[in-house]
Amino acid sequence: MKRVLLPLSLLITALWALSQSAEILTFAAPFLDLRKALTILSGALALGWMSYSMLLALRPVWLEQWLGGLDKLFVEHKWAGIGSVLWVVTHWLIELSPRTLVAWGWVTLPPRAPRGSRPPLDWWIALARQLAEPAAWLMIALGIVALLRFVPYSWFRKLHKLFPIAFLMGAYHSVFIPGGISASALGAMMVLMAVFGSGVAVMSLASLIGRQRRVAGRVSHIEQHASGVIDLRVQPTGSWPGHRAGQFALLTLDRHEGPHPFTIASDWQPGSSLRFTIKPLGDYTCKLAGSVKPGDVAQIEGPFGGFDFGTAAEPQLWVAGGIGIAPFLARLDALAVQGGAKQRIVLFYSVRNEQEALFPVDLPELCARAGVELLLRVESRDGRFNPAEIALRLSAEASVWFCGPARWGDGLKRFLRRQNGLGAQAFHQEIFEFR
Q1: pTM of the full structure
Q2: Which of 44, 124, 181, 357 has minimal CB crowding within 10 Å?
Q3: For residue 261, what are the β-bridge partners?
Q4: Is residue 246 domain-shared with residue 382, that is, in the same domain?
Q5: Residue that finishes a domain, picked among 304, 326, 356
Q6: Into how many domains does the chain fold?
Q7: The pLDDT of residue 297 is above 80
Q8: Angstrom distance (rounded) from CA 155 to CA 147
Q9: Distances (CA, A) of 19 to 14, 27, 30, 243, 344
Q10: Phi, psi angle pair for 97, to nearest 5°
Q11: Between 310 and 328, whose confidence is greater?
Q12: What is the maximum alpha-carbon separation in the chain?
């Protein structure tokens, strides 16, 4: 987030400072003048963070690649949205501060002119003021929902559609509320951010985002293995552009449920189906095996992600936990077709129990064909691989590719960077959870 939000915040603050007097900048101005200036700053920062969140919602390919994949982009989008909610709260509290501070006896305000002596507001300004409070309440409520992990994904997705509406309300309020900055550089920037974000909001409400990367498909096979993992294959009926091993797609099997991100567990060959290995964890995936059947229509959007195993010239350590084996299955497929790995690759595969170890049944044979050394660990019996064990196989020129529980991955990365001097760019981690 520091790569974009920190420079953006500094730019907004600098443009705000250019339009303020020395009294404001030194906090020597009267309370109401200072409060007006800080209201403008907090509102501009809220709009800036919301506009960046809208840019991320657009999912441009260049930004996805720069951030390291759509999984990283989704996380950035989440925290930019939550941060914008905090700025909205700050903006609102500053706006409400006079009556609170007067009630506490901290400030004394000059008497206001009688209501009848003040000129009436133009209707568009009155509307901008009226939209402020409901927009703030809506943003705060949606921010809270985004943090509540127990809210089902289907409900989260539907409620998430209200964010563009909240943005449109906030953008209108930001542009049309009188603040004395309309002719300044900050005012021009706020108008540009509001117009851009509003365009993305309209695209989101019309379900136009990602449309060019959507391909029709049909379920060709679905099977639930003894391990509990669902093996799903979808045959594209449209023009699938192909994917690199390790990437994922947004798969829609039920239009009411909407798209879900699943790793593609197969290498791409023209005309072949896409394989998805899905572990039943949530409400939707737990009922998937009983609700989906061969012949069902599907929609595939993608491919996405930067977890693509880089160059074939470097030795690699692969670390997978449970269903995190999925991207490695695709890479094993690709290496087997190519006649095996050209460099040393070791796969550390950790599963919770003997049942999980049943999937995939042909993993040892697939690793042998791909020229990859397999180390399997059943945690209930032998415990999980610890960082020191993995570090023993790490050479100076090797990279590490991790897909599994986030806490395990974070701990492994810290250990390898601290104890082995592993560079930040040499550790690649797939993010499981986007919410």
Answers
A1: 0.82
A2: 124
A3: 250
A4: no
A5: 304
A6: 3
A7: yes
A8: 13
A9: 9, 15, 17, 50, 60
A10: -60, -35
A11: 328
A12: 87
